[in-house]
Structure formats: C-alpha cells, structure tokens
Amino acid sequence: xxxxxxxxxxxxxxxxxxxxxxxxxxxxxxxxxxxxxxxxxxxxxxxxxxxxxxxxxxxxxxxxxxxxxxxxxxxxxxxxxxxxxxxxxxxxxxxxxxxxxxxxxxxxxxxxxxxxxxxxxxxxxxxxxxxxxxxxxxxxxxxxxxxxxxxxxxxxxxxxxxxxxxxxxxxxxxxxxxxxxxxxxxxxxxxxxxxxxxxxxxxxxxxxxxxxxxxxxxxxxxxxxxxxxxxxxxxxxxxxxxxxxxxxxxxxxxxxxxxxxxxxxxxxxxxxxxx
Length: 275
Description:
By secondary structure, this protein is of the alpha+beta class. It contains nine helices and eight strands.
C-alpha cells in the first residue's frame, strides 16, 4: 500500500467550501461524462454511522457512484486488464468537514484493489502535522505533498489551464478575491486546507509498486484542477444555499443518466495525464 497526504490550500472559508465543493463536483461530473464514459449516480441518501471513522458518530450524505473509465485509466491498465476492470465503484460518506471516499473494482480486482481517501477541511494553511489523527504505523509510511492552486506545474498546459479557471488571472466579482499571487497564502485571508490522506492498494505480483505509483501520479493533477475550479466558480455558488445545492445535485444526477449514453468522451484522459 502506498500512502500520501495531499494538503490543498485555498483562499476560502471552511463554511463556504462545503457549498463550493458540492457544486463543483456536480459540474465536474457533467464535464467528465459522455460517449459511454463518466459518472453514474446510483444512490444518494442521508446516513448516520459510528463505523466510518473510529471514535466518531457521523451524520451526513452517503453517495454511491459508478465510474465508466476506460479512456481515463493509465495505458498499462488498458493493455493488461479486461473491460470489467474499467469500472470503479465509489462510496462516499460526506459528514462535512470530514469526508471518506472508498473506490473499488468489485467486477474484476475485488479485494486486491482499493483506494481510500479521508479528508478533513480545516481553517489553516496546512500546518497541522497530523490533522486526521493517523496511527503511528501509518505516519511512518506517509508522504506529505502540499498543493497550491496557484501552482500549475501538475497540470496539462494544453487542456487544464484556461483563463476562466486560472486563479492567476481570475477575479471574483462578488467577493473581490483574486487574482492570486505566488505568496497569496501568506499575505491574504481567508486561507483553508483540505487535508487528504490517500491510501492506494493494488495487489498484483510484479506490478504492485508500479500501479500504486501510477494511481498516486494522477492525484496532484486531479486535486489541483478540481480545486482551481472550486475557487474560480465562486461567483456561481457563493449565493447558493445548501438546499439550492441539493436541488442542483438532483438535476445533475438525472442529466448524467442521459449524458453518459450520448455524445463523445469528455474530460480528463490518461493520455493527457501522461504528457
């Protein structure tokens, strides 16, 4: 298993980010869905559980999704594995400011593959050493990577960097935030951090280390691109209530059902990530 902790810095308040995250997940799902690939929402409902995070009773929203991902998989997976390996199931327990996401491939890899992402959203600049209270044996293997949405070094310059989602040029009409400078996290407020601990497990003799590194290789790009969009779409979601967002999510779920069956493949692909 390969464990990395990504710390994503954003010029937002934690209370704002909840709405921005939900809105942007819905928008990004639409942008990634079409031509037989993308996101299919199977279930979304309220939950309460004391089994998701040790020592905590959580309440929030449970979402079950199916990802159709052939063109988005690393090329080596496309070459080595059958079609049944190109589908991922995602279960997400969103008990904001904590969230847990589990990705599996029950159709092929079964117990030999999973990705677990635990996230905590905190009003700081990524300075906590162990925000998610990881066990000592996990800390020994954890690598910390700080991601600043100003930094575009993880992005594909041809497909990911656009003026409308570039915090270096974007300025919010409603909040006055932006454009960001290289030292924005030290000179402006608010500042928050998404602490994301990602555990990738892929058991396949001879390929485990390589595949786990490939999985983690996609996350700096994915997290940077998504969180740049969260910030740069702020004027679209800042005035929305949680009730507005839930209605938008329901409409998006219905649209995705139609969208996945038509048009062309959209969004990020493995080929673009490997450039």
